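Contributing: when you submit paired examples, paste them exactly as shown. First protein:
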Amino acid sequence: MKAVLIVCDGLGDRPTRALRGLTPLQAARADTLNRIASEGECGIMDVIAPGQPPGSDTAHLALFGYDPYACYPGRGAFEALGVGVELQPGDVAFRCNFGTVNDDGIVIDRRAGRISSEEARQLAEALKDIRIESVSGVQVIFHHSSEHRGVLVLRGEGLSRCVSDVDTHKAGVKPAVPQPLDDSPEAERTAKALREFLEKAGKILAEHPLNLERVKRGLLPANILLPRGAGTLPKIEPITRIWGIRAAAIAGGGLYKGVARAVGFDLIQVPGANGTVNTNLRGKVEAAIRALDSYDLVFLHVKATDNVSHDKNPVKKVEVIEWISRELTPLVEKVTSEEYYLAITGDHTTPSEVGEHRGDPVPIAIMGPDVRRDDVKRFDEISCARGSLCRIRGTDLMRILMNYLGRVPLFGE
């Protein structure tokens, strides 16, 4: 038996004024998503714990069956793995945003006006020659990820992930100065190296011709880097070994590739899969269909629902949900015809009138040849709450899927 896990990032929502008191899922005409619900068993899921807002990294660890409180290595490590950096023991990786500060050093936009991937890639190239002089033996590795995102890796002996975030997650304030989070010399070395890198990067970005041209065009310059989520190489038992399966992951964003890679998924690259609302979703779906010929578990991630949620655009979120539903139709047909299993859910709730992650549960539906079908007819937060799966936690999901695949051993005699 085989299974597909579809995660629509930031899918969960709350009733919105723009949609006359409906959530985007309730307002959407999403026939294929509703088909999954009506032909399957449904519930709601606290991805980490009731009321706990998850990060996308910790959320995906939970969805893959891992306790994030026990094995979370910091977000930066996943970002680095996702963009293809071969992390070494002792490396410290950071997730970075290209942002915008004014002349007083106040953050105006944490995403530099959502600078394009191509422009951000040019800026990333300009940072690759930075050398650290204040701390001996520290090498800098910087890679662009997608849109305004990048990955910074500090490599060398005697470093630590115990360094504070520079990104405060707020506009209208100055970015934080990186500080050691403990009294170790390793944390002090890391914070000092990071401070030097940011100072040099800021000068390069401020003078870069691309940013000067953006200012002339009335656009926000990407004149600062905002690192956060210091992380190190994770030590996690592969999901393939735990359950004795072959597993493949299809995603656009570097973080999701990185988490999947860290826990043992093979990555399937799809041209045009970029982690934005303009991603090649059709190509990702086609790749998932092909992957079912070779793999027992296929993970398909869709970022677009979270993008529009963070932009506080519930109307656009409805459109994105309807688009996802249409594009998933061939995959649902494949799963149904082969009598495989398919689960669809979100990794967290991002209310589209709030624009930030919240701890509300997300809907979950599982279809397959012998699931206990309930009376739920629509895939949304309220309808699924009446389903037979009831209310579960994120770490329950993988065991439920593996039970359907006959992979969970008997406990006891």
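Second protein:
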Amino acid sequence: MHARACAPDNFYAQVKHTVAGTPVSPEQIAMIVQSVRSGLSLEAADRVLDLCCGNGALTTEFFAACGGGLGVDFCETLITVANRHFVRRPQEAFRLQDVVDYARNADDTAGFTKAVCHGGFQYLPPADAQELLELLRQRFVEVKRVFLGNLPDKRRIDAFFGDRDRVAGIENDSASPLGIWRTEDEIHSLSAKTGWTATILPMNARYYAAHYRYDVLLKRR
């Protein structure tokens, strides 16, 4: 498994925030953090639910801007890192669980006011992606904003692959290295179907993946 192959303190390599295998710069990480904090309009009173939180290296930056929250991920290695290195306060926690299973069965839904899924939404099979958004709408009733980050844009797939060969249909495969590529129209359609209104957020032009990715902010319809 990729995370196990990385150094224990190479946190951004563990979650593949890399270019050609090298972790991206602190400036790049700061752009991600700022985009999420700004998109969610995080305030001290907020409690954040981070779905597909990985090892918590980004999550801790979101928690620092609010009243804490919960990170959920299905990878035991990454959640172990999160609990070992990134729990700063009693009101912060990380849980080992599939995110859709958590959303279906959680008994602690009250109190979350914002949610984020940065870099993970595209790896959910289409039925799971739809169900997750439906569950957030139905069961997490105080969550008013959801940030979906780092989504690969199907219209700009050639900007990523260039002249390289690619497997036919790879853009629709959640198990592929970059997950499912969606157009902005497809995101708008999925959001409307699940009870959300989507706003496409422009990325900082200096962000290393801005030429083929975008962010999305969901608000309750």
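If you have annotations for the second protein, write them as plain sentences, like these:
The chain is about 35% helix and 20% strand.
Residues 68 and 94 are 11 Å apart (CA to CA).
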